[in-house]
Amino acid sequence: MIRVLFADDHEMVRIGVSTYLSSQSDIDVIAEADDGDDAVKLALELKPDIILMDLVMKKMDGIEATKEIINTWPKAKIIIVTSFLDDEKVYPALQAGAVSYMLKTSKASDIAEAIRKTYNGHSTLEPEVTEKIMLKMREKPDKKLHEQLTNREKEILMLMTEGKTNQDIADQLFITLKTVKVHVSSILGKLEVQDRTQAVIYAFKHDLVH
């Protein structure tokens, strides 16, 4: 079972989504929070597999809650579920450590699928979110950290931007899965990012994707 914590200050949203998720054979909503402060406390206490996080909540917003959780528990997997597509919401949420970004207009079944994908190490971004991120990232490139990457690491980064999993990359490049994981870890370190999603965002921001 994928253990889920759902943080949202709208009770009807929580009830609707939680009811659907609980009907799935592989998902268990173990707790709910109606503000960011409680979300942080429950996340660190229960250590759920996935945290669904609203952005605008009482006491502490979703971005700050995400930062608090990630700072204490870096392995937390947080999916933003919000109504906002504003640039000042999307990018800070991903910078804070969220690995997926969904809209409340999404079907409950899409949110369930995002939970499964995130649980298995992938990221899910709404098409509108991906477009905004790409546009935003192209505005002001910063340090060229990618110049530190080896040719092999650059090759793997490009495959990551195509949505390839570690196993896909290993199969395509005829190298071991362990070797891919070592390269991915090195890429994240050199680009000063926390996860694959942020590495992909970096690649788009610096026009590395052809």
From TrEMBL:
<dbReference type="GO" id="GO:0005737">
    <property type="term" value="C:cytoplasm"/>
</dbReference>
<dbReference type="InterPro" id="IPR011006">
    <property type="entry name" value="CheY-like_superfamily"/>
</dbReference>
<dbReference type="GO" id="GO:0006355">
    <property type="term" value="P:regulation of DNA-templated transcription"/>
</dbReference>
<keyword id="KW-0805">Transcription regulation</keyword>
<dbReference type="GO" id="GO:0000160">
    <property type="term" value="P:phosphorelay signal transduction system"/>
</dbReference>
<protein>
    <submittedName>
        <fullName>DNA-binding response regulator</fullName>
    </submittedName>
</protein>
<keyword id="KW-0963">Cytoplasm</keyword>
<keyword id="KW-0804">Transcription</keyword>
<keyword id="KW-0238">DNA-binding</keyword>
<dbReference type="InterPro" id="IPR039420">
    <property type="entry name" value="WalR-like"/>
</dbReference>
<dbReference type="InterPro" id="IPR058245">
    <property type="entry name" value="NreC/VraR/RcsB-like_REC"/>
</dbReference>
<keyword id="KW-0597">Phosphoprotein</keyword>
<feature type="modified residue" description="4-aspartylphosphate">
    <location>
        <position position="54"/>
    </location>
</feature>
<dbReference type="InterPro" id="IPR016032">
    <property type="entry name" value="Sig_transdc_resp-reg_C-effctor"/>
</dbReference>
<dbReference type="InterPro" id="IPR001789">
    <property type="entry name" value="Sig_transdc_resp-reg_receiver"/>
</dbReference>
<feature type="domain" description="Response regulatory">
    <location>
        <begin position="3"/>
        <end position="119"/>
    </location>
</feature>
<feature type="domain" description="HTH luxR-type">
    <location>
        <begin position="142"/>
        <end position="207"/>
    </location>
</feature>
<dbReference type="Pfam" id="PF00072">
    <property type="entry name" value="Response_reg"/>
</dbReference>
<dbReference type="GO" id="GO:0003677">
    <property type="term" value="F:DNA binding"/>
</dbReference>
<dbReference type="InterPro" id="IPR000792">
    <property type="entry name" value="Tscrpt_reg_LuxR_C"/>
</dbReference>
<dbReference type="Pfam" id="PF00196">
    <property type="entry name" value="GerE"/>
</dbReference>
